Amino acid sequence: MNHADITELHYITAIGNLPSILQHGILSHALAEQLAHDSVAMPEIQERRRNKQIPGARPLHEYANLYFDAHNPMLSRCRGRNNEICVLHIDPAVLDQEGVIVTDRNAASGWVGFWPVADGLSIISRERVFARYWTHPDDPYDEMSHKSEKCAEVLVPDRVDVQLIVGAYVANQVALVEFQRIHSQLPVRVRSDMFL
Asked: What integer pLDDT is reported at residue 8 of this predicted model?
């Protein structure tokens, strides 16, 4: 993958978190813990992330985490909440900020690699990260690996500034009405294909 392949980055969140996000930005887990919010994260995954130290950098929970493609196993696990979640569309200029790290798969994975953006993008497989499907019925090992690769991350120290949030996607009309109730001024559109 290279920088030109990335036209947007994604952040999965509950629509109810938008007022806080539009005030504070997208916060790292450590900073978000200090505010009331509705987490979409899986507790067992967060427990693994809690104890993870990025080599030569900070603890994983001190980074806000974005996805290259939100159409991934994480969003799939949230499917039961499609009426109340959204995917925020983030300007890829965030990749140019100091201290940003990319991963080649879910950062909670035991096989994950962490790199500065300049080195890491060339290691990440564009075809695997942006693949429509990550299932491989004939090869369970490849399926397990691909599920993790689909969740490759961009880790931003502390927070993603509000100015870098440029729009949002929702799954359906119910979520669209919920989103519009917040009067965020963010452009939003229904992308049901992303939430399948």
From this structure: 98
